[in-house]
């Protein structure tokens, strides 16, 4: 009864501003957790929390020597933290400067989209010239976790060199698809469903049929490089656009990523109108 009375008294003292204050702090702590998640800093934070728990228990049990040692250690750690966490602190400040702190998890800013599109386009052009078959799937709103699980986990930052190494002939990861999540390569050598369309050209091989298949089942954007002809194609929403140049790939990819709900056919129509306008 005494505890219930104290709780009721505490609740009565809480106002709207207190609730807002708590929610803001909770939000910032959550965003910090997302930034530290799966990084070296997360392990260090766990170590600090463990030391803090041990220090609390030692004080409660009146273990004076252990408490004294831990207090001195914590003082040294507080001084050392800016040095130990220097890369993470810099990355966090960069994300805050770009407005990433208030963005949805996995959402890319303009700089990251440009970097990703340039890397994919650069790799596609080289693979087209060398006739290296490639199948690159860019995940959008609909998750592709079940497809990622069929491949080999990579979790590497996108670069043209990494993509070229993955799709190099006679390498273990050459066959199958690369799936991109955010600005990272989630997995390679992934299996995709084939389209059930009957009226496809005989020129289209397994890669193109797989690209159409996954585009029919998700909102992903898929880039295909033909091993036979070196032709670059893009698939989305069950539509395949072939014979693309480097500029076409950049424009289509950027439009599809920054405007995920735009119909791919509409993007193609806009491109055709712009082309006709330039050639009048």
Account of the 3D structure:
The protein is 57% helix and 13% strand. With 280 residues, the protein is α+β, with helices and mostly antiparallel strands. Helix 3 (40-60) packs antiparallel against helix 4 (64-84), helix 6 runs antiparallel to helix 10 (246-258) and helix 10 packs across helix 11 (264-278). The N and C termini lie far apart (85 Å).
What would you say about this model in short?
This protein is of the alpha+beta class and about 280 residues long.
Topology of this protein?
Blueprint: H1 2-13, H2 16-36, H3 40-60, H4 64-84, H5 86-97, H6 110-130, E1 134-138, H7 145-148, E2 152-157, H8 160-166, E3 177-181, E4 184-190, H9 206-217, E5 221-225, E6 232-236, E7 239-241, H10 246-258, H11 264-278
Keywords:
280 residues, alpha+beta, 11 helices
